[in-house]
């Protein structure tokens, strides 16, 4: 752990905003480290960053391929009260990271419910939100992975189409700048959500929803539902128009989307 490639001293702008920042050259998973930290009794907002992960985790038990030189971070936010809408927080995180990355991305960033960031259908970033209860607090772990600079070979190893910040930005910012921006925006957006709920985020989501108006299939690990996506409501549920009428989905994720573009059906997963 002697040689860092992400320079902790360049994160000085966010140092006053959080209780602790820890930067690892390599770790199993920043989310796993976050869980261990919570169990050991940390307090306040904590940030864990790694240059590489050996066991990076994605949603639904998937692996998050995490070669050195990427952007892997977990924010720990303690909430004193029980969280009433953890699902909504997941969407708030996606909106927040989208706003952060739009500082550099030339093309618009779109959202895939509940919390993927896409550019032209290709994945730029994913978020793994986990809850851990300890000492009477609910800790939310926001695990954020941003594809920063992947080689062609690394892209090919990933089982879906991906893009990276290097491809999307005119001039790629340093990882320290990206981490700083993501952290500041997330703090502000989580605060806004805590004070005002999801209502003010709903339009932001629906304006950027990649699948709005498209036929989607939602998989919650046990069953599948399909219908036309109508965007999200105030509770951050995905509304779909299915054969049996409107349905409100609070768990799962879009496994397949069929989008009709100029007469061509393209399939995104
Ligand atoms: C997904 O889209 O499936 C979510 C990916 C989340 C990846 C990040 S990288 C930092 C943090 N540590 C992990 O092991 N996973 C999250």
Bound molecules: biotin
**CATH-derived topology of the largest domain:** BirA Bifunctional Protein, domain 2
**Inertia-based shape:** globular
Radius of gyration over C-alpha positions, nearest whole angstrom: 18 Å
- Count up the domains: 2
List the helices and strands in order. EHEEHEEEEHHHHEEEEEE
Q: State the total count of DSSP E strands.
A: 13
Q: DSSP helix count?
A: 6
Helix coverage percent: 10-25%
Distance between the termini: 37 Å
Largest sheet: 7 strands, mixed
SS-derived structural category? alpha+beta
CATH class descriptor name of the largest domain: Alpha Beta
Which homologous superfamily in CATH is the superfamily of the largest domain?
Bira Bifunctional Protein, Domain 2
β-strand percent reads 25-35%
Sequence stretches where pLDDT stays below 50 over 5 or more residues = 259-269
Mean pLDDT: 90
Structural notes for this entry:
- With 269 residues, the chain is of the alpha+beta class.
- The chain folds into 2 domains: 2-206, Bira Bifunctional Protein, Domain 2 (BirA Bifunctional Protein, domain 2), CATH 3.30.930.10; 211-268, SH3 type barrels, CATH 2.30.30.
- 24% of the residues lie in helices and 35% in strands.
- The chain has helices at 30-39, 86-101, 152-157, 165-168, 175-196, 202-208, and strands at 20-27, 46-53, 71-79, 110-112, 116-119, 122-134, 137-146, 215-219, 224-232, 238-242, 245-249, 253-261, 264-268.
- Strands 1-2-3-7-6-5-4 form a 7-stranded mixed beta sheet, sandwiched between helices. Strands 11-10-9-8-12-13 form a 6-stranded antiparallel beta sheet.
- A hairpin with a 2-residue loop joins strand 10 and strand 11.
- The longest helix has 22 residues, at 175-196.
- Biotin binds next to helix 1, strand 3, strand 6 and strand 7.
- Residues 29-31, 53, 56-59, 62, 64, 72-74, 116, 126-128, 143-145 line the site of biotin.
């Amino acid at each position: 752990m002697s040689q860092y490639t992400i320079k902790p001293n360049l994160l000085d702008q966010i140092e006053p905003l959080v209780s602790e920042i820890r930067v690892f050259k390599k770790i199993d998973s920043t989310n796993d480290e976050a869980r261990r930290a919570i169990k050991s009794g940390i307090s306040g907002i904590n940030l864990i960053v790694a240059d590489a992960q050996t066991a990076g985790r994605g949603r639904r038990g998937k692996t998050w391929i995490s070669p050195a030189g990427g952007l892997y971070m977990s924010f720990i936010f303690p909430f004193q009260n029980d969280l009433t809408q953890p699902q909504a927080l997941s969407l708030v995180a996606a909106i927040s990271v989208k706003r952060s990355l739009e500082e550099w991305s030339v093309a618009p960033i779109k959202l895939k419910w509940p919390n993927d960031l896409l550019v032209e259908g290709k994945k730029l970033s994913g978020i793994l939100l986990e809850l851990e209860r300890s000492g009477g607090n609910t800790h939310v772990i926001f695990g954020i992975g941003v594809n920063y600079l992947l080689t062609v070979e690394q892209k090919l190893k990933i089982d879906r189409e991906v893009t990276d910040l290097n491809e999307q930005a005119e001039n790629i910012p340093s990882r320290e700048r990206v981490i700083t921006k993501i952290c500041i925006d997330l703090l502000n957006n989580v605060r806004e959500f805590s004070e005002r709920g999801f209502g003010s985020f709903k339009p932001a989501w629906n304006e950027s929803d990649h699948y709005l108006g498209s036929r989607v299939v939602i998989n919650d690990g046990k069953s599948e539902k399909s219908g036309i996506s109508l965007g999200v409501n105030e509770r951050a549920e995905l509304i779909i128009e299915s054969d049996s009428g409107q349905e409100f989905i609070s768990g799962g994720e879009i496994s397949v989307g069929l989008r009709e573009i100029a007469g061509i059906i393209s399939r995104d997963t």
